[in-house]
Design brief:
By secondary structure, this protein is mainly beta. The protein contains one helix and five strands, in the order ββαβββ. The longest helix is centred in the first third of the chain and has 7 residues, at 19-25.
Length: 67
């Protein structure tokens, strides 16, 4: 399946079917991540129920510490 993630076309396995699984695929499931799907911000508790389809656009924003 091809998704547009942060503006880049990215192929992910067809077994990845939800937003939560996308985060898991990119090892972001243990981080605080803001997810926008097709220009709509998703609530964190909806990530596991929100399906992704070929061509969906996702913006994934996570916070990085530093100093």
């Amino acid at each position: 399946m091809k998704l547009i993630i942060n503006g880049d076309p990215i192929e992910i396995p067809d077994t990845v079917t939800t937003v939560a699984e996308v985060l898991e695929h990119f090892q972001l499931d243990q981080k605080v991540v803001i997810v926008e799907k097709n220009k709509e911000i998703l609530q964190k508790d909806h990530h596991s129920a929100e399906n992704v389809q070929d061509g969906d656009q996702l913006e994934l924003v996570h916070f990085v510490g530093g100093g």
